[in-house]
Design a protein that fits this description.
This protein has 364 residues and is of the alpha/beta class. It has a domain of 199 residues: Bacterial extracellular solute-binding protein, family 7 (D-Maltodextrin-Binding Protein, domain 2, 3-Layer(aba) Sandwich), CATH 3.40.190.170. 48% of the residues lie in helices and 11% in strands. It is built from 15 helices and 8 strands. The strands form 2 sheets. The protein has a 5-stranded mixed sheet. A 3-stranded parallel sheet has the order 6-5-7. Helix 3 runs antiparallel to helix 12 and helix 7 packs antiparallel against helix 15. The radius of gyration is 33 Å and the shape is globular.
Amino acid sequence: MNRSRRYIIAGALAVGAGILIGALLLRSPPSEEVATAPEPEPEPSQAETEIRWKMQSPWQAGSINQEVFARFCDRVAAMSGGRLIIEPLPVGAVVAYHETLDAVSAGILDGQNGGTGYFSGKDAAFALLADLNGAYESPRQILMWLEYGGGMELARELFARYGLYYIGGVPWAAESIPAKTPIRTLEDFRGVKIRAPEGMSQEIFASIGAAPVNLPGAEVYTALERGVVDAADWGSIGMNDELGFHQIAPYPLFPGFHSLPLTDVAVRQERWDELPDDLQRIVALAVRTFALDMVETIAMQDAEVIRDADAKGIELIRWSEADRRKFREAAQKVWAEYGARSEMAGRIYQSHLAFLRQIGLLDQ
């Protein structure tokens, strides 16, 4: 064999060996010899990170108040980036209007936009918190009491006794009273069957000679239509008109003077405690915006009804200052009686009195 051929064979063997060695080096080792790195954990999905609450309101489905409540829930979802989703349930969706406090306490609901006065059977303090009948003249004043007059601390202490965290209050307006016949003076209330919420409102109307009837708001129209009641303490003039009350009770007492109610936004304490700090701040801010949205939305609605009252066949019944004063005097007696019914009721009553004097609505 000549030298050149030996070199070719040797070279071929070397190349083949190199390919074989390279293949062996590139071949994956047996699985038991591989030190595999752990795969990264998948990012949590939106569904895994979001918190969901069911909250029931005292408002009928389709009403303007329920729409404002739904806007509050939408606002929380937007402000939280979808981390907290609240389902806005109308009155009666899960429990009766006066049962939401118990339902939240038991975990049936996560929270409520509750009709605070509906719970006055549990403690008179709820009535004094919800609506000091005849006291305040604007929603701004009742919110001032809550935020700067000590009301918020008292409300949170009261709700905590039932396992709820009180986030804030939501008023709407000084209410009107639609009536089937004109009620022009305090004396005209004698014998009038009036739908009124249980608690302080009923006792004040009874004290001036009226005959209060306990009905949920959803039944007011039918009760007026059938003559079960002659008048209704339910909502602002715009709210009443929206529900058709003025078609059968076209004599509303306006401007309102007897009632400036407050609903609450409260959740089960465990639900509140589960929220991180930033979500708690978001919800608290959204509740304050909810209150402003409700007040301004109802004010716009009221203004439209007042403007079109003549065209709608509505006669606005304006009481004299003397009759308004008589109603206030009758109401003050009931305030004091309610303030004596429980320790918490007494503290809320005294807090109201101090603040009403501070802003000039009661004499020193």
